[in-house]
Specification:
This protein is 31% helix and 21% strand. By secondary structure, the chain is α/β, with parallel strands linked by helices. Strands 1, 2, 3, 4, 5, 6, 7, 8, 9, 10, 11, 12, 13 and 14 form a 14-stranded mixed beta sheet that branches. Strand 1 and strand 2 form a beta hairpin. The longest helix is centred in the last third of the chain and has 20 residues. Bound molecules: zinc ion.
Length: 522
């Protein structure tokens, strides 16, 4: 709220103002606990939610013009990429577009599954946009095709065993010893990945495969599986009830999947500021791709748009450290863009990245203000981030504390693009307002909203539009992102052990009086 209420006064940062800023923006001495000074606060307050919403509207317009989504490998993502690139060039950045190949998947129309004998019956499908879950679904990376054939049970455990993975149906080629080529394989969840079962079925000559849930409590619902790599035959996931029903008598089924599953090229967008020490890179990122099911305005148009608005405001500001911003692609397919970036960057360049800040979903309608748990103070799930991640968490905590806004932690569970960075030891942090998880009563007391409901009821759905954004969450998180970027852009005391050890640099800067890093002569 504070962020929007001050907009206007410092909204437009002229070139003259930008050049006048650094003297006062740089702290007089290195601070153990970096917080923005007055001039930095002014700069932070110039970055407001309306600028972010303008970008969200543009992303929505792009989705509307491109079949309702902005998924990696589609025209909607390419248009999003071009939009971000043009804004960044205008703001003065050096922009790199990094191509990489990935396995593209799209379900073009709703699948069909019917038993033609005995007792003909049509099973309820799951539509491609995931707006409802039927009795079966098309697995991601399934082949496309229409098949009528006899179902053949493959090493099923019915009734189900007492514990998960009592079944190893289809995990071994020997499970298919008596399989009749041309039949449809009926498989049960358990022991190995779905893709192993599907590939073994394909190798045994199955015309299609149906994999049903295993049957123990918690393993009965319709499988919404992901094979992870292209398989040629149609592969469906089904509920335990459907599997049990189909297995009970020799059934003939008719099924159809309508998919595109192929290798495509997509791009990350990387923008480097012209300012700051190139050996001390402060990096922020968000993923620009949506899921195929919807326009992805909260996930992650919100993080992308806020990062873009912050970048635009800082393009002409001579920071001490170099600012770098990234808009990843194919995050939704398994952090592919950020992984490609970290894996292909030379080690010497990787060492220059002093921290990575990630913003994935920052405007959820039933929001919580979640900060990545850098120090593992929550003591749940994944361990602490690399040293320095704790300091990043504290900076965000301080931001919300100053606003008297509650906040809580969110585990470094590897579900977003900080994953490859923390894996290589780079301190990381970031913000998150919640996805498909359920808001607790404790959180409802802290943040308002509805306990027992998802943070984002439109997560990965067609309804993730500009209407699926909470303005307060977006405004406060925009302020938090601006704060972290400005503070880390100007600090001489970056998080983590390696910069703190650089005592000589610090002393030189402090004794220089007007410590204008990047412009100083000695
Ligand atoms: Zn996301």
């Amino acid at each position: 709220m504070r962020i929007t209420s001050r907009r206007g006064a410092y909204r437009v940062l002229t070139m003259a103002a930008a050049l006048a800023l650094p003297l006062s923006l740089v702290p007089a001495a290195a601070q153990a606990d970096p917080g923005p000074n007055t001039a930095q606060k002014r700069l932070i307050d110039s970055i407001t939610a309306p600028a972010v919403k303008k970008h969200l509207q543009a992303l929505q317009t792009i989705a509307n013009a491109n079949g309702g989504n902005r998924a990696a490998g589609t025209s909607g993502h390419a248009a999003s990429r071009d939009y971000v690139v043009s804004k960044l060039k205008k703001a003065g950045y050096t922009v790199t577009v990094q191509p990489f190949d990935f396995a593209f998947f799209e379900e073009k129309s709703t699948a069909l599954l019917e038993r033609t004998s005995p007792n003909p019956r049509v099973f309820a499908p799951t539509p491609p946009d995931g707006s409802s879950v039927g009795e079966f679904s098309t697995m991601s990376y399934s082949g496309s095709g229409e098949v009528t054939g006899t179902l053949q049970n493959v090493d099923l455990v019915l009734p189900p065993g007492p514990t998960p993975s009592s079944s190893s149906s289809g995990c071994e080629a020997s499970d298919f010893a008596g399989f009749t080529p041309g039949n449809i394989a009926l498989l049960q969840r358990g022991t190995c990945n779905f893709v192993v079962k599907a590939q073994n079925a394909q190798a045994a000559g199955a015309a299609a495969a149906i994999i049903f849930n295993e049957g123990q409590p918690g393993r009965t619902e319709t499988l919404l599986g992901n094979l992870g790599e292209p398989v040629s035959i149609p592969v469906l996931g089904a509920s335990f009830a459907v599997g049990q029903e189909l297995a009970s008598a020799t059934s003939v089924v008719h099924l159809k999947t309508d998919t595109i599953s192929e290798i495509r090229t997509t791009h990350n967008v990387i923008a480097d500021s012209k300012w700051g020490d190139p050996n001390k890179v402060v990096m922020s990122g968000a993923h620009l791709d949506s899921v195929p099911a919807g326009p992805g305005i909260n996930d992650d148009g919100s993080g992308s748009a806020a990062t873009l608005a912050v970048a635009e405001a800082l393009g002409k500001v001579p920071t001490r450290n170099k600012l770098r911003f990234a808009w990843w692609s194919a995050e939704e397919l398994g952090l592919l863009g950020s992984t490609e970036y970290v894996d292909t960057l030379p080690a010497a360049d990787l060492a220059k990245i002093k921290l990575y800040l990630n913003y994935d979903m920052i405007g959820s309608t039933n929001y919580a203000f979640k900060i990545y748990d850098g120090d593992n103070s929550d003591a749940v799930g994944s361990p602490a981030g690399p040293p320095g991640s704790d300091e990043i968490e504290k900076l965000f905590e301080k931001y919300f504390d100053t606003l008297r806004q509650g906040h809580n932690g969110t585990d470094f569970d590897g579900r977003s693009d900080y994953g490859p960075f923390i894996a290589t030891g780079i301190p990381a942090g970031g913000l998150f307002t919640g996805a498909e998880g359920i808001k607790t009563a404790e959180e409802a007391a802290l943040f308002g909203g509805t306990a027992g409901e998802p943070y984002d009821p439109c997560y990965h759905q067609a309804c993730d539009t500009t209407a699926n954004i909470n303005d307060k969450a977006l405004a406060l998180n925009t302020g938090a992102i601006a704060t972290a970027t400005v503070v880390y852009g100007f600090t001489s005391d970056l998080p983590g052990p390696d910069t703190r050890a650089a005592a000589t640099t610090k002393r030189a800067v402090t004794s220089a009086g007007a410590d204008l890093q990047g412009r100083s002569k000695g």
